[in-house]
């Protein structure tokens, strides 16, 4: 199924939010549940936050938002 492949490719590239948007835009939530995608995004964000905290960096400086 090509839609599942697109979602998987987006997730593998770290584009979790875009993948979820795709799922809802094309009414695929019954075939591709968005909750696991969002949980993976949160897990990755927590991991990044912990790593940056240990390195003494902030998310703002990492994303050049300051």
Count of distinct strands? 0
Q: Which structural class best describes the helix and strand composition?
A: mainly alpha
What overall geometry do the principal axes of the alpha carbons give?
Answer: elongated
Q: Provide the domain count.
A: 1
Tally of helical runs? 4
Poorly predicted runs are none
How large a portion of the residues is in β-strands, by DSSP E?
Answer: under 5%
Straight-line N-to-C gap: 42 Å
User: Helix share of residues?
Assistant: over 70%
Main β-sheet description: none
Question: Nearest-angstrom radius of gyration?
Answer: 14 Å
**How would you state the average pLDDT, rounded?**
87
Along the chain, the helix and strand elements come as: HHHH
Describe what you observe in this structure.
The protein is mostly helical. It is built from 4 helices and no strands. The chain has one domain. It has helices at residues 2-12, 16-25, 34-55, 59-62.
Write a concise keyword list for the protein shown above.
mainly alpha; 71% helix; 4 helices; elongated; single chain; 66 residues
List the helices and strands and how they pair.
Elements: H1 2-12, H2 16-25, H3 34-55, H4 59-62
How would you summarize this macromolecular structure in one to three sentences?
With 66 residues, the protein is an all-alpha fold. Helix content is 71%, strand content 0%.
